[in-house]
Design brief:
- The complex is a heterodimer of chains A (592) and B (115).
- Chain A has 592 residues and is mainly α.
- In chain A, the strands form 2 sheets. In chain A, strands 2-1-3-4 form a 4-stranded parallel β-sheet. In chain A, strands 6-5-7-8 form a 4-stranded parallel β-sheet, sandwiched between helices.
- Chain A is elongated and about 95 Å long.
- Chain B is an all-alpha fold and 115 residues long.
- The chains are: A mainly alpha (592), B mainly alpha (115).
- At the A-B interface, helix 16, helix 20 and helix 22 of A face helix 3, helix 6 and helix 7 of B.
- The complex binds iron/sulfur cluster (5 copies).
Chain lengths: 592, 115
């Protein structure tokens, strides 16, 4: 029987379904007990509906990707949306003809082959199906071009492929052209088909086509489908369904943990290798083009991630911010670092033997407890300014690490030394709680981040000095004088993308000078290159990256380059003519 | 031996044929910038851990170069990886990476402190 050609497709699909069932089953069962409870509790709530909406917008329409890169978004949409609709309308068509949906799955897929005669709505349906096919084919064409020359997409580099990816990719490229040829051959023989297949069919008539050629073409279509399905679970295309699973789990409130777990794996497999993260990474200017997030995720999947690659990343968060799939790229990378260094964490036994501070007076409960942190101690100007503002405003404060203080733990966290960081956190946390101050004031975003994410300080609000000073101004406790100086503001990564603080520093700057905007700011701001997230970037490379960042920041020749992070300041100050100042210094000066 | 009324210190001669070079080789291989260290001590002067304890990163690196690993483990565990040294180093050495490599090297080569 010539209809044996359905076999590759059917077997491939069966195989795919079984593998997917096993894989996803395992991943979901390996989620923590609490996470599973979360799923059960949210499954019949609004959250599922929101997840469905997002799956449609991101999984099919690729809205986020479209916003980043319209051509790329269009290409992905052609495949996803086009294919989805072809399956849906294939079933509709099949139902219209057979009057039932209970047909074997190959009927809707090879419908043209089985049904040649007219039925009510046939004209409309065949033309619709042709249109969808054409739509996908434009995507396929773009995909060909992208492989040949990724620059037309504005992408610097596409990802390299492993053999199974290549099998899946090539069979995917063949599927729709084969479908076109097969349907056209049938159209040539039986005169059915819509505007596309019928026209191509005319060509076939002209060449002369017979039924063995027709069945060969259907075999080709079925084979490419089958091959794609078999390669699918082992290729990057796993992202198609995994992304949807990820969207649902995210909506159910599941969060990435410090330790790499099943949910982390689901995130890793959700990466579509769109390459958006490659483009936004600043490492390129230092000619480092092998450690961007997409490569790291690929290495995690292939289990061949080297320390060198793992540690050479600023953890600036630009890629995470840009990722259309919203993968937690920073924390994923940190979880790999935690795994790589778990055998050698310090216990900081010396903390127990440090002298205890002299007891605080019972009724002198401070308004704020100020933690300067290591980096602020490196920039005495910032420290002095913060204290000056506090004094002028008459704030009753306790200086937590005036003489002797332990590090906040964030640098350890960035290096993956999670257990070690916990020791410092416990030590500092006790001191903070002991102070009974309702506000913890910090002047370094690096500290801010870890206080916010990992300290569990309960009722205590954590405030960066820019937030706190703005409050003091609004309460009338300090007055600022405005000057004519032009200022640009650099968003520190940990403060902006890390903690979402963008406006308070800007408001203060508007009160003290003429704030200018920069090309890449707020969520898109560039990293100064000084980040503690990178352990192996050389000074020379850092300087190259810094120079690029400065170019963007200083485009309008401002009088002052303002920032809100002692490390950013320290990084910029070396080798630049313009004045580099922290918000604290600017506020302190404006009070005179 | 006769008692002259004073004592001499134990010989500190180093036998270069006998040095445990495993750790220093491992560090240099993975962080070549460490070669440029001139033992200026800037890192030690601002060190956060040095402020709290007797930790001395400059001394420790010298000892590692000389293969004297008796107390390396205990010492390196005091570093909090804060990164101040990185900012102060005139040679632009990735000191934090050096610290991580020391920690990892000690684990790889199973080098333990002498009791
Ligand atoms: S990590 Fe995100 S941005 Fe990067 S390739 Fe994957 S999906 Fe695209
Ligand atoms: S976090 Fe920053 S440096 Fe690291 S890969 Fe992403 S964009 Fe590049
Ligand atoms: S110092 Fe500032 S800009 Fe630089 S990495 Fe840190 S937060 Fe980012
Ligand atoms: S990173 Fe370690 S060695 Fe360097 S200053 Fe901080 S505590 Fe000292
Ligand atoms: S500051 Fe740099 S050069 Fe000086 S001792 Fe420390 S690591 Fe060596």
């Amino acid at each position: 029987m010539e209809t044996y050609f359905i076999l590759p497709f059917t077997l491939g699909m069966l195989f795919l379904l079984i593998v997917l069932f096993i894989k996803y089953g395992l991943w979901i069962t390996k989620l923590s007990h609490i996470d599973k409870l979360r799923i059960v509790q949210s499954i019949f709530t609004r959250r599922s509906w929101d997840a469905i909406k997002e799956s449609f917008l991101e999984g099919l329409v690729h809205r986020n990707m479209y916003k980043r890169n319209p051509l790329l978004g269009y290409m992905h949409m052609c495949f996803a949306m086009g294919w989805f609709l072809i399956i849906v309308f294939g079933h509709v068509e099949c139902y219209m003809y057979y009057g039932t949906l209970a047909k074997a799955p190959w009927y809707p897929i090879f419908f043209q082959y089985y049904v040649h005669e007219w039925f009510p709505g046939e004209r409309f349906m065949t033309n619709l199906m042709d249109f969808l096919l054409l739509y996908i084919l434009t995507g396929v064409l773009l995909a060909y071009f992208k492989r040949i020359n990724s620059k037309i997409f504005g992408i610097k580099k596409t990802t390299k492929l492993k053999p199974l990816d290549r099998v899946a990719l090539i069979s995917l490229w063949f599927i729709f052209p084969m479908r076109l040829l097969a349907e056209s051959a049938t159209a040539a023989l039986y005169g059915n088909g819509g505007f596309l297949t019928n026209t191509v069919g005319q060509l076939f008539v002209w060449i002369g086509v017979n039924s063995s050629m027709e069945s060969m073409l259907w075999w080709g279509y079925s084979l490419s489908l089958g091959l794609f399905f078999v390669g699918f679970p082992f290729s990057r295309y796993m992202h198609i369904f995994t992304e949807i699973l990820f969207i649902f789990l995210r909506h159910y409130g599941i969060k990435l943990k410090k330790q790499f777990n099943s949910y982390s794996r689901i995130q890793v497999y959700s990466c579509s290798r769109c390459g958006v993260c490659i483009d936004v990474c600043q490492m390129h200017v230092a000619n480092i083009s092998n450690n961007q997030s997409v490569y790291i995720l690929k290495n995690i999947r292939d289990q061949n991630l080297t320390d060198r690659k793992l540690y050479n990343c600023l953890l600036c968060g630009r890629c995470e911010q840009a990722c259309p799939v919203r993968i937690n790229l920073n924390d994923l990378r940190i979880s790999q670092r935690i795994r790589a260094t778990k055998e050698f964490n310090s216990d900081y036994a010396f903390l127990q033997t440090l002298p205890v501070d002299e007891p605080q007076m019972i009724d002198s409960k401070p308004e704020v407890i100020y933690f300067a942190g290591c980096m602020t101690h490196m920039t005495p100007g910032i420290k002095k300014s913060v204290l000056k503002v506090l004094d002028k405003a008459g704030v009753k404060y306790q200086f937590m690490d005036k003489e002797k203080g332990a590090c906040c733990g964030r640098p350890l966290m960035l290096a993956g030394q999670y257990e070690a960081a916990k020791k410092l956190i416990a030590y500092n946390r006790e001191k903070i709680l002991e102070s009974r101050a309702p506000i913890l004031l910090v002047s370094c975003p690096i500290c801010y981040k870890v206080f916010k994410d990992d300290y569990e300080l309960g009722q205590i609000t954590i405030k960066h000095h820019s937030e706190y000073f703005l409050e003091l101004v609004n309460q009338g406790r300090i007055q600022l004088a405005q000057s004519e100086k032009t200022i640009v503001y650099h968003d520190p990564c940990e403060l902006g993308r890390g903690c979402g603080v963008y406006e308070p520093p800007r408001e203060l700057l508007r009160m003290t000078g003429q704030l200018q905007s920069v090309q890449q700011e707020k969520v898109n701001s560039l990293c100064c290159s000084g980040s503690l997230g990178d352990l192996s970037l050389s000074m020379a490379d850092r300087n190259v990256i810094k120079a690029e960042t400065l170019k963007v920041l200083l485009q309008k020749n401002p009088d002052v380059l303002a920032t809100a992070c002692p490390l950013c300041k320290k990084t910029f100050v070396k080798g630049v003519d313009v004045q580099v100042k922290d918000i604290a210094e600017i506020v302190a000066e404006a009070m005179e | 031996m006769r008692n002259f009324g004073f004592s001499t210190t134990k010989s500190r001669t180093i036998d270069y044929g006998d040095i445990d070079r495993r750790l220093i080789s491992y560090i240099l291989e993975n962080e070549p910038t460490f070669n440029a260290c001139l033992s200026c001590g800037s890192c030690t002067a601002i060190c956060s851990a040095g402020n709290l304890t007797s930790f001395n990163i400059r001394k420790l690196s010298l000892q590692i170069r000389l293969g004297d690993l008796e107390k390396t483990h205990e010492e390196i565990d005091k570093c909090m990886l804060c990164g101040k040294c990185l900012l102060e180093c005139p040679r632009g050495i990735n000191t934090r990476n050096v610290v991580m490599l020391i920690k990892k090297g000690l684990t790889i080569f199973e080098i333990k402190d002498k009791a």
